[in-house]
Predict the structure.
Amino acid sequence: MGPHGEFHIPRNTPEWMIKIMDRIGVSKAAISHCISLESDFKVGNAIVYEAIKKFPNRFIGYAVLNPHYPEEIGEELERCFKHYGMKAIKFHQSLHQIKYPSDFERYRLVLEYAESNNLTMLCHGFPLPKKIEEAAREYRNVNFIIAHCGSWNMREESEALSAAKHVPNIYVDSSGSIEWYGAFEKVVDKVGSDKILFGSDFPWCNLAFMIGRILFARIPDEDKRKILGLNAKKLYKINS
Amino acid sequence: MPKNNIGLHLFDCNSTIGRKAVRNPGCAYTPEDIISIMDYYMINRALVSHAICEGNGPLPGNKMLLSEINGYDRFIPCWVLLPNLTGELGDKKISDLIDEMLEKGVKAAKIYPYNHRLCLSEWCMRELLSALEEHRIPLLMDFSIVHYSESVWKIPWNDIYEICRNHKNLPVILLRVGGNVNRILFPLLDKFENLHIDISYYMSNDGLEIICEKFGANHLLFGTGMPTYSPAGPLSMLLYSNISLKEKRMIGGENMDRLLKSVII
């Protein structure tokens, strides 16, 4: 949610998002705030808290932690999970410019916390999907979701898809900016429908556009149900 | 003809037939392949050009297009053009070539400014643009955008402004415009009735709704980019959009039909 410096994101408030989700039939969304990704992670987390307080049955909060501010991470984790009631963690290696393996080490404190609390972590998977795989093998109690894997071009070897196939606690989400014809079916075939979650990048992208990839996919309805919600219910421990 | 339950007659303004050097991920390129995709997505008709035109220039591809789609009444042909001082379109003057195009039933033209290394300034394009404008032939512009972020720099926005301003009777259609250029696109849509975009890659949140409300549904055309790109996203976006059924029908096909019917032969 929220505005983005690089381009116009219309109707990015919680109220607008709920209206649009209602129209398209999306009952819940796990959200973070653009301010957390591009400026001040603590300000963004606080705004997400207000949104989940206002719409507790519709929004699930991601705590965004920025490894460039390591001294603030411990306190922010406590605030997000003890006070804000957030359910999962989000890393954005790209916007936070985590370019080098040594940068990734700065996530260590967050990974330890997630391991102790059996949390799910959404990771913008590029670059460094290999590092996510290593972390997943080390932190077995953490479920990792590698984002933006739905538009694989079917040529490039995808480390993220292989990791999701072979490592039990790695999942992928269906978002991804390029809608190659036939690609999503190949992703399902390669990874398996138990390991894919619907992701939209909404409101950064158009929710209806992104859900079309799953609704129109030439895959069995049972696979669509898992991807559209059943898998997420398990990961986020949602009962209703 | 495939039908959907809200009476949308879908006319895809952005598709190709034919192979490219790099195989499409979905491995579809023959007219039969494309028809099969259209059936699955309930698309009635498609404006098609030949993929060879993008890779090797217009002459061989335009000819192949007409022979390969012969007998398929769901395909509407679109020729790829260039400014012709190089003679790459043959010896004919542009105006004679346009006459030939119309005689053969081709009522839409496409250019690839990025891959064909065109300069869209008036001093380079005037003759071609004026000839198309004289006949009100819709001009589709494909900037070879793969990722939406490229919309900012692959599209020469100042040139689009000048073309729309200098050729007010020329319907200009920008293909695969991303949802990340509203700050540039909206002022242009506000100024020019002759500017259109296809919705194949316009993933702006509630973007269709906002354009319909601010500038009118007449600026939007249903397009997919198939067979390289999937119709799933744009179709889902159109079906779920919070606009009137009348506007959905306009975007789905009526706008493109109107542009083709307005061509002066």
